[in-house]
Specification:
22% helix; 102 residues; 3 helices; Ubiquitin-like (UB roll); Beta-grasp_dom_sf; alpha+beta; globular; single chain; 19% strand
Amino acid sequence: MIRVVLPAHLKNLAHVTGPVTLEVTGPHAGPVTQRLVLDTLEARYPMLLGTIRDRHSGKRRAFVRFYACEEDLSNESPDAPLPERVVAGEEPFIILGAMAGG
């Protein structure tokens, strides 16, 4: 089980109050990746389609960041395996709404 922490505005949109727990398995028992987690999240909560990734290109939205195990995974390949502690459910996969301004 993967624990996903959403920012407040996406929790409201998805009608959840805490971390989301997802049953995620890779195709043919392959690695668990960002793409697989996000595909599973959007399938379970279709109202999130287009909020985290562009619907057409699948690229991460500019002001959305991904973190796990105290690492910024935002610029990692969406097909890179997630850290083992995330896959084991020990650490959450965090989706964070970044802020900009000056």
